[in-house]
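Hello,

Our lab assistant flagged a job as stuck in the queue for most of the afternoon. It eventually completed. Since we weren't sure the result was trustworthy after the delay, we are filing this so someone can double-check. Below is the sequence as submitted and the structure that was eventually returned. Let us know if re-running is recommended.
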Amino acid sequence: MVNHHQEIVHYLALSFSHDLNAYQLTEELTKLNEKLKLTESLLESKNLEIKKINDEKKAALATQFAVVVTLRRVYAAQKDDDTPPIEAILAPLEVEFKLARQEALVFPVQIAKLQDDNKALDRLTKSKEATLSYAMYF
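-- returned structure --
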């Protein structure tokens, strides 16, 4: 009888241990799910930021193209005697062109940084997904 009592106590302790482990894994899984959602949200934010920068780059290139077209028109119209001095026309256009050029040079650096952030977030997401899969398996 004592032997059965010890066996029952042993199985109860083992059952409690399994329940505790299951609870702890569930808690860890919940925390990892929350972190995964946060990471996915951050990734989406970074993707939107990259899209915005790409749109700004396109706008800067369109501005650059407009400046070039305007310069061609100015040079073509320069043959007329009634036109103002070319320097008066070119000065504001050169400033606008330089600004557009500077923006076009800054965008690739920003894009590269955001892409690196994106890759890091992807790796983190995959790592967390693997951890979640592992935790769900056990």
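-- support follow-up --
The delay was a queue issue, not a problem with the job. The result is valid. The longest helix spans residues 2-77. The two ends are 35 Å apart (CA to CA).
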